[in-house]
Amino acid sequence: QVQPVESGGGLVQAGGSLRLSCAASGRTFSTYAMGWFRQAPGKEREFVAGISWSIMSTFYADSVKGRFTISRDNAKNTVYLQMNSLKPEDTAVYYCAAGPKSHITIARMTTTEGYWGQGTQVTVSS
Description:
By secondary structure, the chain is mostly beta strands.
């Protein structure tokens, strides 16, 4: 099993940057695709970015493409989300998830599948 724990959230001004980290325990971490999702108040959870277990492939939501970068370090059992040029509409709780998916199909993973963290709050002020 894999248990993700997110960190790195906080308050930042529009145009600023944050890096989220997700440390995942479990021997199978390196064989799972990892994804970042977010949920803003009153909205459904949405996919942000995914990365394959081999590190070679990534996939992004159109809303963050060119601004966010997902990466992983299997030796450290950690996945990262570098967020640049942040906008107020990026404000949300960000969740890390792991699952036996590809970097693309993890975008459709539901909360009843795979393993999910508790989330970290990101607030972008205008």
